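PT: before anyone asks, these are the final sequences, not the draft ones from last week. 497 residues across everything. Please model them as a single complex and drop the result in this thread when it's through.
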Amino acid sequence: MRQTELKRTPLYECHLSAGGKMVPFAGWEMPVQYRGVVEEHRAVRSRVGLFDVSHMGEIEVTGSRALDFLQYVTCNDVSKLTAGRAQYSGLMTPRGTFVDDLLVHKMSDQQYLLVVNAANKDKGYAYLCAQAAGFSGVEVNDRSAQWAQLAVQGPRAADVVQRLTPAKLSDIKYYRFVVEKVCGVEAILARTGYTGEDGFEIYVHPAHAPDLWNAILKAGAEDEIVPCGLGARDTLRFEACMHLYGNDIDDSTTPLEAGLEWIVKFDKGPFLGREALRRQEAAGLKRKLVGLEMIGRGIARHGYPVLKDGERVGTVTSGTFAPTLQRALALAYVAVELAREGEELDVEIREQPVRAKVVATPFYRRPR
Amino acid sequence: MSYPQDRRYAKSHEWVLLDGSTATIGITSYAQEQLGDVVFVELPAVGSTLERDGAMGNIESVKAVSEVFAPVAGEVVEVNGALEGRPELLNTDPHGEGWLVRVKMAPGSDAGLLTAAEYEAFLAEEGAH
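LR: through. Structure below.
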């Protein structure tokens, strides 16, 4: 794809002004870092960071049968949501694998907002439209161009955002949201995020995004807020063991294999993939996603083989040198009989086996 | 930036500092900037033989693995042990404390390397600064 074909968020100029190093990502020109991945990562863990996540997709599902429809195409129980609540879920194939992972926000009984991965937005939207054809009373609309999204994440995020909104943030619990003014403009203000820290994701009309970005940086100056790029976004979510579609989950993996059995609500009623997942549960998993800690010297990365006594038993899905935990860690699918804490395996790094052991996840949990 | 004139440079962004027949090798400031935060360095063993433009280990950032290429040929006589515990030296002092290896250089294998001025011109052509 030629550079000129990449999409730009409303914050493109803000990124250049902040010294952002722009790279292609999912068809967008996005900042991978400003001052450095490690510095930005640590800022979020210890203070607060600001992310442009406007590349994410927003799909609206409305109508009298919106709930029935969403119950059918996702694996989590949408009926548990009340207005102002969100849930993490999977958009499912009939095989019980992931079309995408997403957040489902309930705006009202007949209005839901799905926030989906940038890389999967077109695929997911087409899939939802095709599935909706079988439902009367359901409308699916791609609202991605009508939303910009900023994330403020870190232990000081609430202090910073509170300076910009009349909403009482202490009343907004985790995975709840309000529709309220932020910097004087209407926004969806959600206590969600992809970093493992406290924080907010703020959705506004694209025209307001640059002012909001600048206002957040100004309001956060006393807390030493820094802009953070996709590099830090990845290391932060990885330490917290939040899945990345395309790495840890995809349309060949089920939520059960991925350690996401908690988002599968078998008893909520029929949904795409339910029978396949029931069969998988009954037969027993063949593989599981586990955490690995390197014992030998080396960094395990996406795609590297996992071996046991020289035999291939799995594959690394995500891996890096974790900036907060200061260790080489990885997530990998391994044969289920080896998916036990303490099991020693090898990761093949440039044709050499390097010793690793299975460890508990999440690697990082924020101090409460 | 202004590159030190006491050494020579390869287009693959390594530098070579000669002291008699011993060559100290490292990566340039431009290279470390492109890499981002270095978290892991893999170096050839002492006693191993390097070939000009051959593989000379890997430098890993958070996001990626980058190969290092030997700007001269020779036998590795010393590796920078400090990089094991402090890989970030490659970012903070790539021309000094972040040196990678010392080799007993094969005579003439440094032919064709660039001067500081030539390397700076090369970077400018690449669109760097």
